[in-house]
Protein: Cell division inhibitor
Amino acid sequence: MQIYRLHRTQKLPIALNDAWDFFSDPKNLKRITPDYMGFEIISGAEKKMYPGQIIQYLVSPVLKIKTKWVTEITHVVPQEFFVDEQRFGPYALWHHKHFFKSINGGVEMEDIVDYKLPYGFIGQLVHPVLVKPKLEEIFKYRERKLNDLFGTYNDKL
Structure:
């Protein structure tokens, strides 16, 4: 059983409150997801994030095949972190931690995604050629989109 990890950090020149307000609104996930993913929220995004919240999406990660993805927000500590976990969807395991920290001149955000693929050995075979590159692409898109929305952090502040 192979569990993979994706780890990213990004700094933005915005206040912690502003970052939290943006990321705690599930509707904003569509804004930072590539259009080709066909991302559509079906239900559960009517309120700001809270523990126990169930959010249902449709996504088309491969070959425009629509896939239902259901996540639960399992932990929320306002302006510090939240965790979303897949309850139903394309992964055998999806556990995504989002951390937020105020820094000089902005906010540092950290994403840690632990995930496992279905289909045993076949899932492990497709990971390096399909799944890992696709996740890298999605998170790179997200980074660029957040820089477009909020500006680029300058480490020399």
User: Anything to note?
Assistant: Strands lie at 4-12, 40-43, 54-59, 67-77, 81-88, 93-103, 106-116. The longest strand covers residues 67-77. Residues 69 and 89 are 4 Å apart (CA to CA). The two ends are 44 Å apart (CA to CA).
